[in-house]
Structures are given as structure tokens and as C-alpha cells.
Amino acid sequence: MCDTCGCTLTDGNSRHAHALRARGGEDAVEVLTGLLDMNDRQAAHNRSHLDAHRVLAVNLMSSPGAGKTRLLESTIRSLGADLRIAVIEGDLETENDAERIRDCGVPAVQISTGTACHLDAHLVHDALHGLKLDGLDLLFIENVGNLVCPASFDLGQHLNVTLLSTTEGDDKPAKYPVIFRRSDLVLLTKTDLLAVLDGEFDPGRAEAAVRRLGTEAPVLRVSARDPDRLAPWFDWLRGQLARRASASLPEAS
Ligand code: MG
């Protein structure tokens, strides 16, 4: 649960909180636990909905400014001819990122969370109704920029990817272990800046910090400015899509 900043309540689940209180759940812990159980149920529903349409959903998490939207722009421009992609964008305010994605020629739904520092399964469920899932291959969910709370909420995604930019410091996996432990892939972004950072960010140290968390998740070095330096990310994505394609999944109803 998000026991760090008390941000569990969002526009997406507030109606459930009112219902829990109305049923006598006055105790704050009881209400929070009920909401998180509901979130997990909603996430499972989202995932089965995506499975039925054979859409692979990837949740992108990072600090603000690590390059999630920039990565998506470059990914869509490089892979958009081969793959049918859509994006759900999460930010506290503005439609800026969704507009950037639409400018790349793919559908995007913006979720404005207001004061909430993460997406939750109810918000994503509502956003899914704004997308045509038939024919989609890949759905990216760009979470709110935050290395803490997004890790605590299942959205119904299949994979978690966490970005760590070279301007943030290579000790972040040690400082924010939960989000890195829950990642299926870690992307070290903005590696084109390594030359000017003069050793302040050491990719080897960042990867070692991830390994000390006990996760086997690959750690890839990329730069969204250069499609050639995104090749490892594209290979990983294609590998995940191939695994999904060969998996036994329910047919769309
Ligand atoms: Mg963004």
C-alpha cells in the first residue's frame, strides 16, 4: 500500500472510499485496505480485458524528467510502422504529453490525477474506455513521475519498466529499492550525456546497485536522441511481444 504520503485516494477510487465509509468502515486503515483490495481486483479485470484483446501493456515509471515521454516519441517513430501502439499518459495537470504522443500519429488518453502522485487501476480502467483495443499490439502507460508511489499500485499492466536518467545519480536504485525490485527492465536513459558528466554517473555502479536488490531484470543503456542507441530497448520489446504472441491467451469476446 502507499503508506508513504497517504496518497491512496484518487478521483478514480474516491467513490469506493465513500461506499466503504457508508458501510461502516470508519477506521482509516480499514478503508485504505479495502481500497487497495479493490485496486487489485480492478487491475486483474484490466489485465484480463487487455489479454482478451491480445494487447501487451507496459507501465513506464521514473522520476519526473527522466525521459519517459521522449522515449515513447522515439519508440513510436521507430516502431510505429510495424506495431500498432497506443498510450495512456499520467500527470497531475496538463494534456502536454498526450499531445506530444498524438503528434507522433498514435492515439493517446491523458489522465490528470490532480493531487495524486500515481496512477491506479480505476483511473486506467476509465482511460481504457477511450481507446480502441482491437488491433492494438502495444499499450504504454506512462505513470506519474515519481520513484515511490507508482510502485505500489497494480494497474493491470503486464510489465514494469523503470527509467533512471544519467542526470539523477547512480545511487537511486539503492535509495528507492521498491520500484526497481518491481521492474522487469531498467533503462539507463540520456547516456549521450555521460561524456559531459565527467564520471558523476557510472552506469556500472547503477547496474551494481540494481543487482544488490536481488533482481535479475536487465539493465540497458539507451539514448532517445539516437535510434541506434535504442536498439537494445527495441529488441527487448520485440522479445516480449513474441513471448506474448506464443502464449495461450483467451480470445476476445
Ligand atoms: Mg512525460
In DSSP terms, counting alpha (H) and pi (I) runs of 4 or more, how many helices? 10
Heterogens: magnesium ion
Order of helices and strands: HHEHEHEHEEHHEHHEH
Task: Give the tally of structural domains.
Answer: 1
Number of E-type strands: 7
Structural class: alpha/beta
Q: pLDDT average, as an integer?
A: 91
Explain how this protein is built.
The structure is a single chain. The protein contains 10 helices and 7 strands. The chain is α/β, with parallel strands linked by helices and 253 residues long. The protein has one domain (14-246): P-loop containing nucleotide triphosphate hydrolases (Rossmann fold). Strands 3-2-4-1-5-6-7 form a 7-stranded parallel sheet, with helices on both faces. β2, α4 and β3 (108-112) form a beta-alpha-beta unit. Magnesium ion (MG) binds at residues 68-69, 97, 142.
